[in-house]
Amino acid sequence: MEAPGGFAPMPAALKQAATEQLEYHMFVGLFPEIHRAWLTIDHMLFLWDYNHPSGSFYQYDGLEQTIINAALVPCKPGVFAAEATPRHLLLLSTPSEVVVLAVYPTGPAGSRDGGAREGRGEGGVRSPRGGTAVGAEDSTIDIHETGFAVPSDGDSAGLAGLAGARQFRVNFVAMAHTPCGRVFMAGADGFLHELQYGFSERWLGGSHRMCQKKNVSRKRDRAYNF
């Protein structure tokens, strides 16, 4: 059900927080897939349901660096344990890293199936850090850490090992996905990277988390011949 006028306004408490806590940067956007608007104030992320003027919002402050971009993407199949597979993944880009979080809609307030969110084994998710639901909503969400993150440090052209290659941080200012869950990130340096995550087998048995970015831009080929 839509709020009068089509969209509910920003919760009053959040609007006050935005006025009082802003220090450096603030970004805003929409996640239509989960009917949420998002707002970042420095290292904090806020989400609220733009269809229901309940005045409640969700706050995540588990990062230390300023959040410069956020994206909601589908989860790749086979990465998480079946009982812990999230509906969506939330990507948060900071000047130092891109962090992958798991998003679980929990249905009506009070209807929380803990077993579906607490992963078991290597593919499970961990408990949330810094996530707080403020107020009560008709539908709620939980955000959990996945352990997947990739640093933004690296040579911009993907030319590690070549003479003159420089190492510096890249701000990823746009992130997009395919229906099957592949994730692509556009850097402020003009290069396109693919985010790759999952679990890889160890030589002596077992598995470990893998999260990396791969430069897939055609500019890379031109850089080799520069």
UniProtKB/TrEMBL annotation:
Task: Kindly list the GO molecular function terms attached to this UniProt entry.
Answer: structural constituent of nuclear pore
Q: What is its main location?
A: nucleus
Any one cellular component term from GO for this entry? Answer: nuclear pore inner ring
- State where composition is biased (Basic and acidic residues): 114-123
User: Which parts of the sequence belong to the Nucleoporin Nup133/Nup155-like N-terminal domain?
Assistant: 6-210
**Keywords assigned by UniProt, alphabetized:** Nucleus, Transport
Transmembrane stretches in the record are: none
Any one biological process term the GO annotation gives: protein localization to nuclear inner membrane
Q: What is this protein called?
A: Nucleoporin Nup133/Nup155-like N-terminal domain-containing protein
Organism equals: Emiliania huxleyi
